[in-house]
Structures are given as C-alpha cells and as structure tokens.
C-alpha cells in the first residue's frame, strides 16, 4: 500500500476545506451580522485573493522549496478558519477571508505542482480528495449541529474539529510526504518524479505534443508561456466545465423548491441536492482510475463539455415548474446526478492529462496551471451566476399547468 496516495487525497481535502467551511458558516454569520448578506462579500473576497495569488504561485512558486510553501500555507488556512468565529467586525472577517484565499492558493497551487512533478497517480488522488472535501465539511457540520442546538456552541465545536484535521494533515505532510522516495527523487532530479517504469494514469489516444526530455528549459520569464502553450486546451476545458457547473450550483439550484413541504420548509431538499452533487462528483473524479474510462481524446472531452451545457436550460425548466409535482423533484435529483458525474470526470482528466504533454522540467508548472484553471473557472461561473440572478434570469416563472 502506497501511503502517499492516501496522504495526497487528505491534502486535497485540506486545501479547499477553508472555502467549504466559509460557505457553511452562513448560519453563524447571520447571527453575528443580522440583516447582512455577508456570505456573498466573504466568498467574493476569498475568490479574488485566491485567483490573484494563484497567478503569483504559477510565476514564482517554483523557486521556493515545497515545505516552505505548503506548511506555512496550511497553518495560515487553519488560523484564518479559527478567526472566522472570533472576529466581530465584517471588515475583519473579510480580511481573514482574503488571507485564507491567499493561503489556499499557495497550498493548493504548490501541492498541485508537486503532484505534477510526481508520477501521475498522485495527481489523481489529490483531485479525488478535493472532491471529497465538500462531503467532509458538510457531514461533520451536520453531525455537530445535531449534537449542539446552540449555533455558537456548534460553530466553536465544528471549528475545533476542522482545526484538528488540519493538525493531523500537517503531521502527515511532514512525516510522510517530505521524506517519501518519490518526493526525494523530485528534489534530487530537478523535480522530475518520473522513472522509466512509471506509466501515466491516462494514456492519450492522440499524439502527445512535445514530451521531449532533451529539450532545453526556457528562461524564467518565458517558462510559464512555453508551458501554457502546450497545456491550454485542457485548461480551457476545465474552465468551461467549472463555469457550467457553477452557473447551476449554487445559482439555480439554490432557488429550486420541492413539492414535499417538509423537505422544503426544513431545508433538507437543498442539502440533499448538494450531497447528490458531491457524491457523484467524487465518483466522476474516480472514473479515470478505471481501465474503461482511460484514454479519452481532447475532441471527445470538448464534445462532453458542450453536451453538458444542456443542464442549464434543463434546470431553468425545472425551476419554472418546480414545487407542484414530485416528478420535478425526481428530475432535479436526476439532472444533478448526471451533472456531477459529467463534471468530476473531465475535471479529473484535465488535471492529469496536461502532464503527459510537457517535458519533466515543466510538469510542476503544468500542475500549478491546473489549479489556476480550477479557481478561474469557479470565479467565472460564480460571477456569471450572480449577474444572471441580478437580472432575474433564473427567477423566470411562467404559469404552471400543475397549480
């Protein structure tokens, strides 16, 4: 058993846990800051800092040793997380969100770069871990709220649970990752973690662009551009898939109504929809590990992405007639399931496949670029969803024949 596989999955959970926690502190924030939609402000500050710092990580991150980037970033994420429940000013929490987003960019971008330099199976484990993070956050929050009725007490206990997880993850990184033979090989061989016996997780069905090991490294100024020129198609596919998904979740999905009054009034309808997405998104991210799902071409990835755009009008249609017939509830869960599967799969492929198209000295930067595409697609999707909401596009409600 290769413990580094599982450690990379746990690191995937840790790097995005602060953002999921920020989203799930909404009940606590509404008590501390009543009458203010602070969750939108905090999320925007987080994502802006996240994306801006990601650009820096891509440009200069490779010159800093991995422990010097990853360990302080995870500590800073944990500290920011703890501050969310103790700060009493909107501006102070917003600053903490900016710090958390910055630290997230360094930890996520650096670990993605490290996985890029390692054999490709580790990147797949990391990507699956990122998908699992939402499940970890939501299930632990639900169990804590069930155990403690008071919102503040539940928030404090839940924060302590998340901090314990960060401490455990930090210990794993220091004891397991930094001393692992593959990681040591990256340090001693110019960050080339591959060997002659390593087989890529996903074998391309088309000719690779230029994985020439005898190619001379580009200058520090040109290296990002040279790498980007080789991997941009997969990055664009990842951005497009995140954009489509974030147009619907949380955008349109947050406005859906159930025909079952208990599920609607208790909030369980939206919770179950969210879990529906998270579960099948993780399954979709795991699919490239199975032989039958390896080797998808870039053309087929593009076709799959274009086909996914049908979910937007499908959810608009469900939104138009929801709340009046159980069939629309079933349609919402079915569409969410399919959307999650067809999201997780291309995102996982686009995180790993670019690594097969660059020489070893560009793999770390290619891995960091996948993080930039990840957060860039999310930011675009959220921005477009909020724009459509402000113009009442997703509130369109014709006369329903089921009323």
What does this structure look like?
The protein is an all-alpha fold. It has helices at residues 3-24, 26-32, 38-60, 66-83, 90-117, 121-147, 151-177, 181-188, 223-252, 261-266, 268-286, 298-308, 311-321, 326-352, 363-390. The protein is built from 15 helices and no strands. It is 72% helix and 0% strand. The chain is globular. Mean pLDDT is 79; it is low at 190-214 and 395-403.
Enumerate how many helices there are, as a single number. 15
Describe the global form.
globular
The secondary-structure element order is: HHHHHHHHHHHHHHH
Largest sheet entry: none
Task: Describe the SSE topology.
Blueprint: H1 3-24, H2 26-32, H3 38-60, H4 66-83, H5 90-117, H6 121-147, H7 151-177, H8 181-188, H9 223-252, H10 261-266, H11 268-286, H12 298-308, H13 311-321, H14 326-352, H15 363-390
Summarize the structure.
This protein has 403 residues and is mainly alpha-helical. Helix content is 72%, strand content 0%.
Features:
403 residues; mainly alpha; 15 helices; 72% helix; globular
